């Protein structure tokens, strides 16, 4: 296996943290420099026509793109610890929270980054109105997280799941997107502090 | 079980088609009229704070929201036919295509609908610039689908998977979003015609 990796970008980090939480050693890493547009070369486009990172290349040449597809592949090969849940209800609940966070907070923060950060102006056609509308959504998404975290140590109960990785990375992504995390989100601060202290978070 | 249902809206249809393709009888349906803003009542907000449809309420009172979480719950309870794939590589490939289509074509068409359709003006703060940027993306997403469908009858091979349901619904959703499907997409037309003829598609 080879992992085409994008350094500090959020999705490559999600996958490396997932490897670390599963206790699976990272495969050979192939660094792809997004700032140098290496994800837009012809060779990389053959691996992933969407020109996105990360991509896991299997030994038979299959190229798996999409962060969650890569994580599910690892979960199927190495079921323990179960980061996508065990029984049907637990799996569905974790999927629900992972999606709520990914399509909500994560997507809004990413839209602010892509459509307002000066460094992205060269890679994207920026729409300032969309950046502002997305920024306005962030508070609601944070409250959803805050209330859920008031009831348990992690988003879906007593142990870390893939939903916590997605949510934690979304919070990290607020910094380069220049969105402050208000003081009032005490549960998020408690949980994010604990996440950041895990060895996996350095991945 | 009870399924809080939103009629012709795309996500409720995805779940009903999934039930039909699995051969699982639909549970009690609770119609929620989006046009009458019934998804924004206090009672419904308790079920799903994001005020979105569908929601599957289990007999123990658990409310499962998010289309894909509901579908995965059904897949875990009734593994055959496997609409999310069987072995690790198949599951990851189907997840990759489902996400490519959902975060690509489906999301772009939905953005055009939400940000440009007159009927949505009352429910959304519309940003015409975002509708136009999303409309400009649709062709690229269609080409990705077209090329993939040139190689096999369905998106991930010889049999229908959840990725075909997502993609087929995205194509259906182009009509109310007022996006024509150009003649040149012959593979999409072939495949979408076959999908539409399946009994499940009437769900």
Automatic annotation (TrEMBL), chains A, B:
Cleaved signal peptide residues: none
Domain GST N-terminal: 1-82
Segments forming domain GST C-terminal: 87-203
One Gene Ontology molecular-function label: transferase activity
Protein name: Glutathione S-transferase
Highest rank taxon of the organism: Bacteria
Pfam families referenced in this protein's UniProt entry, alphabetically: GST_C_2, GST_N_2
Keyword Transport applies: no
Keywords (A to Z) from UniProt: Transferase
Keyword Transferase: yes
């Amino acid at each position: 296996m080879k992992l085409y990796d994008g350094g500090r970008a959020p999705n490559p980090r999600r996958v490396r943290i997932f490897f670390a939480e599963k206790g699976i050693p990272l495969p050979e890493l192939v660094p792809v420099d997004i700032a140098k547009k290496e994800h837009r070369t012809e060779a990389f486009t053959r691996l992933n026509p969407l020109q996105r990172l990360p991509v896991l290349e299997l030994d038979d040449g299959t190229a798996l793109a999409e962060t969650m597809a890569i994580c599910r592949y690892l979960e199927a090969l190495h079921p323990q610890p179960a980061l996508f849940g065990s029984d049907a209800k637990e799996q569905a609940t974790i999927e629900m929270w992972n999606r709520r966070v990914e399509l909500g907070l994560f997507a809004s923060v990413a839209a602010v980054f892509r459509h307002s950060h000066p460094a992205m102006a060269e890679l994207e056609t920026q729409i300032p109105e969309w950046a502002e509308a997305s920024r306005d959504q962030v508070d609601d998404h944070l409250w959803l997280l805050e209330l859920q975290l008031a009831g348990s140590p992690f988003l879906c109960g007593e142990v870390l799941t893939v939903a916590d990785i997605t949510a934690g990375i979304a919070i990290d992504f607020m910094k380069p997107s220049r969105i402050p995390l208000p003081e009032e989100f005490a549960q998020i601060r408690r949980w994010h502090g604990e996440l950041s202290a895990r060895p996996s978070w350095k991945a």
